[in-house]
Amino acid sequence: MNNTTPHFGPTPRSNPESRATPPGEPNPTKTRRPVGAAASRRTPTKRTKWFAVAGLALLAAACTNSAPPDATTPAAAPPRTETQVPPEPAVLLEVPSPPMGVDEPVEPVEYEFTAVSTGDSYTCGLRSDATVACWGLNQLGQARPPEGSFVAISVGEFHSCGVRSDATVACWGLNRFGQARPPEGSFVAISVGMDHSCGLRSDATVACWGWNEDGQTDAPAGEFTAISAGGSHSCGLRSDATVACWGWNEDGQTDAPAGEFDSISAGMDHSCGVRGDATVACWGSDDYGLTDAPAGEFVAISVGRAHSCGVRSDAAIACWGSLQTSPYVPSGEFVAVSAGEYHSCGLRRDATIACWGHNYYGELDPPPQGPFVAISAGATYSCGLRRDATISCWGADHANAGVYTGNLRAPAGEFVVVFAGNFHGCGLRPDGSIACWGYDGSGRTDAPAGKFVAVSLGVSDSCALRRDGTVTCWGELHLAQAGPPAGVFTAISAGDTYACGLRRDATIGCWGYVSLLYDDPPPPGGAFTAVTVGGNFACGLRTNATVACWGSNEHGQIEAPAATFTAISSGLLHSCGLRRDATVACWGWNEHGRTDAPVGTYIAVAAGRSHSCALRSDHTVTCWGQVATDLRGDNDT
Q: Cα 332 to chain center, whole Å?
């Protein structure tokens, strides 16, 4: 693991807090960072390599404080409801400490990709089916791409853009300076910088938009074949193969050398290009040896913040500059590379992606492959049941204080349902037996013997429904040592110290306690079809498809919207429901955007501690919230 102290480079020459912020836009503390977008005149839409760097402390508080400020006990994820059974930071930190993950390369073999672009602690890839998948930091929606088909993508600091199949540009994420508001028109290539973006139009002219303090959006006239937006400068490859740069030039980053180039990439304070003879030339700031490109022939180049990487003619990757990412450069054959802040990713010849460097927010972890038939969101990870009846889990594979628990490593074999808890998971096998994995404190993975029809995981307790309709619980608190009320149950949901079950007569019975500080309200009367328990509240789905919730309401977690639903799921302090029109609606505490469900149609939804996931109509998974895109899926063995 590389523990070398990262350097942040020269002090910004302007105070980012002095920039005017349009109404309704976030105002993160800014530093100047590179956003390397590699562009090639030979394949202008295929060789986009980007980079953007930003205040890592934007999520420092979020990553260390998962409970609200007034919480008196640690928060943890309740289990999922039975509706998942398939029918089928404004302060800059000098040196952030990685809250999770490792620095070694992650080499997923799940999806086939045609392009990859890395940014500030997040990454996006263009799949072979022309859709975009992103993973890593998602605090401002920068890793939540829109639906549709794309031909090119570019990832920046807090925003991303892509060229759609109809040649229009779509951007998502932070739009403080208009950097995510592209102009109309037809484009063939796109490049995202720190606070600005540039695109190559179909008529070979360049259009830039966003922050223009240093003239980085004042593109010169003329015809271009490639474009690359950096920190506060931009570069373009003219039709005669020469390079033109514009914008901030304090370190000579716009003083491109003479000669012909095949591709270019603009970073924070320096830029690089591949010459016609396949050698690399760099110009601008030489901190950390940024302009000391290695000898040899290259076919692609990508400039990051304090390091650069290139693909050699033999398909190997070489990196130089700051050693934050280079010690773990993977071997193998690559066709493209993209350098980020403290991580980089490469596209292999077999269409898979390999990433290396730091893994602060899951930026090394592309999402697992579908198709899935059911999902469950836990505390800092999620699990899905594949169509072949196997389980795949992704997210953070550790408990508190970095203690690894194995919560991602579901056992082999077939399952009919899966549940992700706090730091352990359980699955129900076709023969009715239960298998659990992960953290075994207080015996929470010691599932009882017997035949069961449902299972539900709490923070440190679990409950299962036997075939005769009785309930058995195990773990630390045994749900406050209180047994379930009388009756025969058809479904169960367990929370921290509280659980509820759906009786055969459609009424709800609960046991345990919601909170020691309040009188626990009884569940409402009437007939229900589903029940789900959250951190200190619960919700039920009535037979008329409306939702009723009860318990604590300090964050609006019992204020369900007036709509009709087919399924519901409660997390720590929020809930999500699947409407009858197949869209998702969420309510409750919205820190980290856990209730900001993306548009689209879905067939299942699961709410976790600080994130949520939903299963799309095409059986792929999309997630949102604090760890929404930390999708690793590294238990597929």
A: 26
Cβ(467)–Cβ(453) under 8 Å? Answer: yes
C-alpha dihedral sign at 156, 159, 163, 165: positive
Identity of the amino acid at 121? S
Give 259-325 as a DSSP string. Answer: S-EEEEEE-SSEEEEEETTS-EEEEE--GGGTT-PPSS-EEEEEE-SSEEEEEETTS-EEEEESTTS
| Biggest CA-to-CA distance, the chain | 84
Contact 512, 476 (CB under 8 A): no
Phi, psi angle pair for 503, to nearest 5° = -75, 165
Sign, Cα dihedral of 245, 247, 251, 252: positive
Instruction: Judge contact between 386 and 373, C-beta under 8 A.
Output: yes
User: Within 10 Å of residue 582's Cβ, how many Cβ atoms?
Assistant: 13
Query: Which of 196, 214, 103 is CA-nearest to residue 158?
Result: 196
590-632 residue pLDDT tens:
988 889 998 889 999 999 888 898 998 888 888 888 754 433 3
Peptide bond into 371 cis (omega under 30): yes
Tell which phi-psi region holds residue 576, choosing left (phi > 0), alpha (psi between -120 and 50) or beta.
Answer: beta
Task: Calculate the dihedral angle through the C-alpha atoms of 210, 211, 216, 222, rounding to the nearest 10 degrees.
Answer: 30
Better-predicted residue by pLDDT, 334 or 80: 334
Closest CA to 104 of 429, 358, 452, 369: 358
Alpha-carbon distance of 68 to 592, in angstroms, equals: 12
Q: Under a CB-based contact definition with an 8 Å cutoff, are residues 523 and 509 in contact?
A: yes
Q: Is the entire prediction scored with pTM above 0.70?
A: no
Distance of alpha carbon 386 from alpha carbon 435, whole angstroms: 17
